[in-house]
Structures are given as structure tokens and as C-alpha cells.
Specification:
about 350 residues
Length: about 350
């Protein structure tokens, strides 16, 4: 944390009037915004940020995701992360590491639109229903409920492409198509539309806890970093300094996300590979130890992914000049009530 604090300029040094003027002009809080907070345009642009955030990052880590999935469903053949990469390159060449990139890109772009766009919608909507004071007092619950609501719809958008991706990545060589344009019709011909959604329930089981942790942990970590680590208020930080905090909070949140959602992720991979298997069948076949297979690679992948996603999302907000409210602070009305209560 000391190294994070050292990235910020010394707040104790005397500040001249001209410097104050320049800082105020550069501060995010005083910048003219491109739209009003909570407007339709605001939510639409947040969805754009989510699409770029999730689509770019998940596509970039396709090789790691591919090996992780193979570790989960074929632990006899793929012993560890290094062995998985080695076998994949030996059997399919370096290009084999990008198997499934197309459904990954399409699926997670759609998921990002719903995940981030709807999160902003639900957080504002539920917060309005709760009232300003309760929204602050129970803000962690607000983040959890809003993110769970958003992820419910995001997974419906993701499920068809996730089914194609996992089947492409985990099927034996020569037993299933390796391109999306061939994989999707084959799944549809064999299982109908249900084939694209058969794993949506375990997908909810994986992604909803993951997203709840991702958003709630991120929001509270940002709040804690500004309160305890960053040596000056957020509105006095430059945009680049604010993005450093975003990245750090995102990585911390990502580690917890990976652990919370990993067993369900393993079940999703197994069910998409084993045609006709249910959740109970997958859990029984994998066993307790098997449910945690591939956790190390997934922590690396999800920690990095989550940090980059928040960095890209916040960066898009900066570039599009969207309103970026500061971390939650106690409303004045509540301060007055607490002050009266103490007296």
C-alpha cells in the first residue's frame, strides 16, 4: 500500500494560487460532462464501456482460459498450467491457443453491455427506492443487489456463446468443430435452442456470486483506498492517479471473485463438455477436489481481467466525459442526525 501511495504527488507541499486554479480546471469533479448522470445517454455510454471492458479483456486471455477449461474437464491428460500449454501447442500449434476466440469475443461483449450498463441502472434505481440515507448506510447491500440483478440478464446474453466456446475448447481433437460458424449449427441440430442454455443455471451460480463480489468489493476497496492510502482527496487527484486506484481496487476484487465462483465455473465447463449431464452428475463426477481444479490459473486470469476491466471501463468514462461520482460519503442529513444523537 505504501508503494501505491508513493505514486501520488506530495499533498503537504505549499500550493500557490495559480496551482490551485490549474488543479481545479483539471479535476474530474469540475469538468463539463457530456451527459447528465442517470440519463438514457449515460446508461447507453456505460454499456459501451462495459462492452469494450469485457470483450477486449476476455478475448485477450483466450489462451489462458482454454488451458484452464481443459484442466477442469480432463485432469488426467492436462496435469498443470505449463503442461496444458505445452500439450496444446504440440497438438494444435501456437494458433491452437486461440481456439474459441470468436464466441469469447461476441459472448463477453454482450455480457459486458448488460453487466455494466444494467448495474448502473439498478444501482441508481434501487438507491432511489432506499433513499439517500439508507443507500449510504446499506451501500454494500445496494452494490450486491444491483450487481446480482444485472448479472442475471448478462448471463442470458452470454450463455449461447459460452456453450459454443467451452464445447470447442474441451472436445477431443476431431470430434467437434473448431470454428463458431460450424459449432453453433451443430449444437442447434443436436440439442435445439436448449443446447445453448442448458448451462445457464450453473452459469448464474458462477457469475452472479462472482459479479456481486466484483462490484461490491471494488466499490468498498476504492472507498478504503481513498480513505486510508491515497494521500489526498479524490477530487484533487488527476485522472491518471484515479485510474491507478481503479486498477489496484480491481485486482484486489478479482482475486476474491475467482475464489468465490470457481466451483461453479468447473461445473459449467464439465456440463458443456459432457452432453446430457446435470449439475448433480457433474459434481459427483468431479468430486470436491476436482471442483477446485485449475484455481491457480483462474486466480491469475480473473485478477488480471477484473483489474483491466475496471481500468478500461473507468478509462472509457473519462474519455467520454461521463459523470463519475466520488466514493460514497455520508449525507449531510445523516451527519446532522448523528450529531444530534450524540448530544
Amino acid at each position: 500500500m505504501d508503494s501505491l501511495a508513493s505514486l501520488f504527488s506530495n499533498p503537504i507541499q505549499p500550493i500557490q494560487a495559480e496551482e490551485v486554479k490549474t488543479r481545479s480546471l483539471n479535476a474530474a469533479a469540475t469538468e463539463e460532462h457530456s451527459c447528465e448522470f442517470g440519463s438514457g445517454k449515460y446508461y447507453a455510454l456505460c454499456a459501451v464501456g462495459g462492452a469494450l471492458s469485457c470483450g477486449i479483456t476476455h478475448t485477450a486471455v483466450t489462451p489462458l482460459d482454454l488451458v484452464k477449461c481443459r484442466l477442469q474437464v480432463n485432469k488426467e491428460k492436462y496435469k498443470n498450467l505449463g503442461n496444458g500449454f505445452k500439450l496444446t501447442v504440440a497438438e494444435q500449434g501456437a494458433k491452437g491457443l486461440m481456439l474459441g476466440w470468436a464466441p469469447t469475443s461476441i459472448g463477453y461483449t454482450a455480457q459486458g453491455i448488460c453487466k455494466f450498463g444494467f448495474y448502473e441502472v439498478f444501482k441508481n434505481f434501487y438507491g432511489g427506492l432506499m433513499g439517500e440515507e439508507n443507500a449510504f448506510l446499506y451501500r454494500t447491500s445496494l452494490y450486491l443487489i444491483a450487481s446480482a440483478s444485472a448479472e442475471f440478464f448478462a448471463d442470458i446474453a452470454l450463455s449461447p456463446m459460452e456453450a459454443c466456446k467451452v464445447r470447442m475448447q474441451t472436445s477431443g481433437l476431431g470430434t467437434f468443430p473448431t470454428t463458431l460458424r460450424e459449432a453453433a449449427p451443430k449444437i442447434y441440430a443436436a440439442e435445439g435452442i436448449a443446447g445453448f442454455y442448458k448451462s445457464v443455471v450453473p452459469l448464474w451460480g458462477r457469475q452472479i456470486p462472482y459479479t456481486m463480489m466484483k462490484f461490491a468489493c471494488f466499490e468498498r476497496t476504492v472507498e478504503a483506498l481513498y480513505a486510508n492510502v491515497v494521500p489526498k482527496p479524490r477530487d484533487e487527484c488527476s485522472k491518471s492517479e484515479q485510474l491507478v486506484v481503479t486498477f489496484a481496487a480491481g485486482y484486489i476484487a478479482g482475486v476474491f471473485c475467482a475464489i468465490v465462483s470457481h466451483p461453479a465455473d468447473t461445473v459449467v465447463s464439465y456440463m458443456n463438455k459432457a452432453s446430457g449431464s446435470g449439475i448433480g452428475d457433474a459434481v459427483k463426477a468431479l468430486g470436491f477436489k476436482g471442483l477446485w481444479g485449475g484455481l491457480g490459473p483462474r486466480i491469475i486470469m480473473i485478477g488480471t481481467l477484473t483489474a483491466l476491466q475496471w481500468f478500461i471501463y473507468d478509462g472509457v468514462k473519462v474519455q467520454l466525459r461521463l459523470p463519475r461520482p466520488p466514493p460514497a460519503s455520508m449525507p449531510e442529513s445523516l451527519k446532522i442526525k448523528l450529531g444530534l444523537a450524540q448530544n
